[in-house]
Amino acid sequence: MRMNSRPLDGSVFLVTGGAGFIGSSLVDALMSRGAEVHVLDNLSTGSLKNLEQWSTHPSLKFIRGDLLDQAEANRAVQSCETVFHLAANPEVRLSSVAPDIHFRQNVVATYNLLEAIRRSGRPELLAFTSSSTVYGDAAKIPTPEDYAPLEPISIYGASKLASEALISAYAHTYGFKALIYRLANIIGPRSRHGVICDFVRKLKENPRELEILGDGTQAKSYLYIDDCVEAILFSMQKTGGPFDVFNLGSEDWVDVNTIAKIVVHEMGLEDAALRFTGGVDGGRGWKGDVKYMLLAIDKLKSLGWKPRFNSAEAVKVTAKAVLEGSD
Question: Which of 25, 87, 229, 244 has the smallest set of CB atoms within 10 Å of its CB?
Fold first, then answer.
């Protein structure tokens, strides 16, 4: 992983959701740079296996807990200078069938964390991983951070936008710094959900045919996990204002049909038939699925960062890694 070389030894970080896909990769980067890291995770979607290389390291403290418990949230922030808030339910498709899950696990959990920060007065910085879904079906593509109006079309997107608003209000009212990262589709070896994992699973079950939700023309930006973590740590050392928002993605996009062909090729199943379901609402994979997403990343690039992989390259590297990990 290419990281900014500035050491973080002596700093104490809290990573909520730190046993998950993105969270554990962030923990790896922080630990490798000499930081003390506290991880708060209820292990509902995360795994201790993601942290096993640090399991006996004195600088890692794992707390099995839930931000829905205010007392646990209060204890978790006590000794930390910086909080990375990644804990959330990441399943966008749940939006249409179980909206209460996204409200509780994304909005209420964020509120409880903010209350803990307010009460302790301890953390100086909160960095939050939001989502490109806050833009909804943006009329401007690539979509910049100042695009408006923000009209999410899924409960998941709404929960992320609500969390952003709460964080902004708390940061301005109670005097701590906050950074918001609106993420494109982040992919990599530890990912356990999303289109690549779905395709691999389906093809293992039926090597002759791949069912593809939607019409296959859905096109989105995909960013490799190492690029994502690098951008987060790079930008937090480059910005000085009390509140800022960054888009975080690649400079291009790739459609679902192309992703399917990449996965089929990596699995050596070129004879597999691609069967498109047709989808809903004009070819979307599911209700609330943003069909086209490409984020403008000029703001982050102006600070000196750019992704190493484009979307198709990130998909190919991730497909290889997922296949290696599923053997």
Answer: 244
Are 242 and 290 within one domain? Answer: no
DSSP string, 254-310: EEHHHHHHHHHHHTT-TTPEEEE---BTTTBSSTT--SEE-B--HHHHTTT---SS-
Helices and strands in the chain: count of H runs, count of E runs? 10, 14
- Structure-model confidence comparison of residues 192 and 295, the more confident one: 295
Q: What is the pLDDT of residues 193-213, one digit of tens each?
A: 899 999 999 999 999 999 999
In this prediction, residue 4 carries a pLDDT of: 41
Is the backbone peptide bond immediately before 142 cis, with ω within 30 degrees of 0?
yes
Do 182 and 208 fall within a single domain?
no
- Asked if 129 and 183 touch (Cβ cutoff 8 Å), the reply is yes
- What is the C-alpha to C-alpha distance for residues 206 and 219, in angstroms, rounded to an integer? 25
CA distance 266 to 14: 37
Nearest alpha-carbon partner for 214 in 312, 104, 290, 114: 290
Q: HSE, CB side, 13 Å, CA atoms: give it for residue 61.
A: 14
Is residue 287 domain-shared with residue 167, that is, in the same domain? Answer: no
| Within-domain flag for 234 | yes
Q: Structurally, how many domains does the chain consist of?
A: 2
pTM of the model: 0.94
* Residue 148 in domain: yes
pLDDT (tens digit, 9 = 90+) per residue, 95-108?
667 888 889 999 99
> Which among 82, 31, 22, 29 is positioned nearest to 61, based on CA atoms?
31
217-236, pLDDT tens digit by residue? 999 999 999 999 999 999 99
User: What is the extent of the structural domain holding 227?
Assistant: 12-187+223-251
Q: Residue 149, preceding bond cis, omega within 30 degrees?
A: yes
Tens-place pLDDT, residues 162-180: 999 999 999 999 999 999 9
DSSP-derived letter for residue 136 is B
| Structural domain includes residue 169 | yes
Q: Could you tell me the CATH number of the domain that includes residue 211?
A: 3.90.25.10
**pLDDT reading at 94 higher than 70:** no
